């Protein structure tokens, strides 16, 4: 079974002109989930202390991946969703400007080795915002890597991640 074959293209969502990559059918298939987690584990070359999960679809496999790797995870959410003090940053999406992310303070240390996980690398805006939050928390740049299920190469999101180890399982 190839999980990539389950990814649906949804035209004009969330706005006209955008082709949304719908992973719903992938996540609904238990065999596909197992395969994806195994493929992610095989490609990871570091021993992370934390996985950074990006709202919302990064939570789905990222928490399973953290469990499989025996490490903790930290949530990155939209503004106002996390209690206590937070780090915050803004970014632009392919189809929307001025989005924001927050991450709780005190969950990362300078000695942490982190993997930032999300489902899709598109323009790189959300991934770069997550890097910024992790750096604000004091994690050393050389201890930050990223993994994605898929990458939309034509949007050149990898250009924003230069200097950071990263990979995507699929090109869509």
Considering the chains and any ligands shown, give keywords for the structure.
five-stranded parallel β-sheet; alpha/beta; 172 residues; two-stranded antiparallel sheet; 4 helices; Rossmann fold
Q: TL;DR of this structure?
A:
The protein is an alpha/beta fold and 172 residues long. The chain has helices at residues 24-27, 30-43, 57-69, 125-136; strands at residues 8-11, 19-22, 50-54, 72-76, 86-91, 99-104, 114-121, 144-151, 165-171. The strands form three sheets. The protein has a five-stranded parallel beta sheet with strand order 4-3-7-8-9, with helices on both faces.
Q: Write the element-wise H/E pattern from the N-terminal end onward.
A: EEHHEHEEEEHEE
Which structural class do you get from the secondary structure elements?
alpha/beta
| Number of domain modules | 1
The whole-number mean of residue pLDDT values reads: 95
- Helical fraction equals 25-40%
- Provide the low-confidence segments as ranges: none
Shape: globular
Instruction: Tell me the distance between the termini.
Output: 17 Å
Q: Could you tell me the radius of gyration in angstroms?
A: 15 Å
Strand order of the largest sheet: 4-3-7-8-9
């Amino acid at each position: 079974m190839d999980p990539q074959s389950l990814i649906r293209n949804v035209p004009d969502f969330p706005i006209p002109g955008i082709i949304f990559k719908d992973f719903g059918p992938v996540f609904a298939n238990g065999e596909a989930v197992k395969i994806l987690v195994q493929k992610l584990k095989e490609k990871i070359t570091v021993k992370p202390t934390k996985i950074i999960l990006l709202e919302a679809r990064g939570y789905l496999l990222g928490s399973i991946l953290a469990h499989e790797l025996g490490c903790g995870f930290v949530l990155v959410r939209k503004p106002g969703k996390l209690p206590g003090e937070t780090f915050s940053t803004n970014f632009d999406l392919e189809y929307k400007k001025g989005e924001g992310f927050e991450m709780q303070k005190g969950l990362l240390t300078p000695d942490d080795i982190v993997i930032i996980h999300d489902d899709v690398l598109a323009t790189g805006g959300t991934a770069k915002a997550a890097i910024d939050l992790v750096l604000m928390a004091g994690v050393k740049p050389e201890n930050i890597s990223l993994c994605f299920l898929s990458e939309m190469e034509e949007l050149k999101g990898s250009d924003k991640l230069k200097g950071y180890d990263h990979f995507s399982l699929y090109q869509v």
